[in-house]
Amino acid sequence: MAGKERAELQYLRRHYEKPGSQLIVLYGQKHTGMTEMTETFCQGKPVIYYKARPCSERQQLFLWGNELREMGIMLPEYPSYPELFVSLDLNQPGKKVIIIEEFQYIVKQSQLFMPSLVSFLHGLQEGHMVMVVLSSTSIGWVESSMVQKMGGAALAITGFLKMKEQSFFDMVRYFAGSTREQQVETYAVLGGFPGLWRQFDKELSVKENICRFILRKGSFLHEEAPGLVARELRETGVYDTILSALACGKQKLNELYIHTGFSRAKISVYLKNLMELEIVEKVFSFETEGKDNTKKGVYRIQNHLIYFYFRYLYPHMSRLAVIKPEDFYDTYIAPDFRRFTAFSFVRVCREYMAYLNQGKRLPFVYTRMGEWAGKAGDIDMVAQDEAGHTLIALCSWEKPVMSFDDYEWLLFCARKARLQADHIYLFSAERFDNMLLREAEAKNSLHLIGLHSF
Question: Percentage helix, strand, coil, to 5, in the chain?
Fold first, then answer.
């Protein structure tokens, strides 16, 4: 899978090339590479950059004005927003770019910012064009509260762009010198966040990186996982309790109720907030005729680093404080790490299948994909096209050898789901037993894919 320019960067470039001025809202989770992407976009263009702070409106105006005065722009000590924006219309050739990072800190405090910005854009002289990019890492606020807070000024926004996590295969290119197994393990811990990848040393093993950069007190990643929750949410004790319960396998609402002692209504509200921040996801089973054999929706921690933190560090904080990181890893992480990584291996396999599907390299092009969560067992992937052709997949990370028994178990689950599978894909982190290899030779509908085939 060859590397390519990020779709988000292409989006910004397309909008920049349009005639006239633009107002873009760019948002996404922290560490998605938003700042680095905008830096790349701005290369060779006249740019004004401002990073907003959580402070009063008067202090914000003072800080922004002071930064512009340091650039030689004449402004009063406490400028108004119109005065600020007029000063940004630089007398330079070409379309200008104004980047306002973490703009939510301004909009939350000011009723004047957005109307002043819109008035500035509408009042530009002919031939003067500006592209304003308002960026934010507060995705819950952008998606649920921003438009209401902006009021009618939100109608001036010409584009919304959400930064997504990078794919596993983007991470593979970043850690190109590692083995495929190490890459899957690293992805399990850090997910698709380039800002977190840079915290690991490419020359170290996964264990060494975890010990040095997560388990060691004072390291960035050691503090970042709880910080991601605390920065966005109040009552962190409640959220930490729920996340800790999810990390140890309490994934149903009733299980969370029994474990935490909180009311179901309270848990539901807090889960909703965590889902808005894309820390937690609710997973429903693929729609089949076997509804009576499915589990109801379950909750999972979808942020990899937060999941790692609450699975290993949070429940053993006392021990982590008194023993060496290497001893902590051997005692609490190593025995369970393959099981922890198995969840991410399923995501990797789905991503690989999506890549094949996009390239029309599967027996048919599927239009919907999901998983089947059964009471007796799960199917890691179910996909169908419009005509009802079906493929199912099982992903094995924990076992050194995927066996014929695993294949028969998948067939059993398919019967429970009442699925007629036209094609079956089996993914193994290592290898397949001889009986399964012979079965695949005899059946064109059975596909065996090893980790190093990716």
Answer: 50, 15, 35
Judged by DSSP in three states, 359 sits in coil
pLDDT value of position 375: 81
Q: Is 59 left (phi over 0), alpha (psi -120 to 50) or beta?
A: alpha
Angle at 155 between CA 154 and CA 157, to 5 degrees: 70
- For 375-444, strand residue ranges (E) read 378-384, 390-396, 401-402, 423-428, 431-432
Can you give the pLDDT at residue 124?
A: 85
Work out the angle at residue 296's Cα, subtended by the Cα atoms of residues 410 and 372, and round it to the nearest 5 degrees: 25
pLDDT for 90 equals 62
Radius of gyration, alpha carbons of the chain:
25
Please state whether beta strands 390-396 and 47-51 pair in parallel, antiparallel, or not at all (unpaired).
unpaired
DSSP 156: G
pLDDT score of 1:
44
Cα–Cα distance, 7 to 93 (Å, whole number) = 27
Instruction: Provide the total of helices (H) and of strands (E) in the chain, helices listed first.
Output: 22, 14
Q: What are phi and psi of 2, to 5 degrees?
A: -70, 150
Our measurement of the distance from residue 37's CA atom to the centroid of its chain's CA atoms, rounded to an integer in Å, reads 16
Long-range contacts of 334-343 (CB under 8 A, 24+ apart): 334/207, 336/311, 336/312, 337/185, 338/397, 338/398, 339/398, 340/188, 340/307, 340/308, 340/311, 341/184, 341/185, 341/188, 341/397, 342/395, 342/397, 342/398, 343/188, 343/300
Longest dimension (CA), the chain: 81
First to last CA, the chain: 9
Interatomic CA distance for residues 18 and 11, integer angstroms: 11
Quote the tokens at residue 231: 């920065």
How far apart are alpha carbons 340 and 329 in whole angstroms?
13
Stretches where the chain sits below pLDDT 70 are: 1-5, 89-92, 290, 293
For residues 112 and 81, the answer to whether their CB atoms sit within 8 Å is: yes
* Structure tokens given for 157: 């926004």
Tokens of 410: 């998948």
The answer for residues whose C-beta is within 8 angstroms of residue 74's C-beta and 6 or more apart is: 87
Amino acid found at 289? E
Classify strands 298-301 and 159-163 as parallel, antiparallel or unpaired: unpaired
Residue type, 123: G
pLDDT at residue number 2: 43
**pLDDT recorded at residue 4:** 57
Residue 123, phi then psi, degrees to nearest 5: -95, 5
Say what the pLDDT of residue 3 is. Answer: 46
Among 32, 35, 31, 12, residue whose Cα is nearest residue 22: 12
The answer to whether 229 and 239 are in contact (CB under 8 A) is: yes
Give residue for tokens 């703009």.
103
What's the sign of the alpha-carbon dihedral 180, 185, 191, 194? Answer: negative
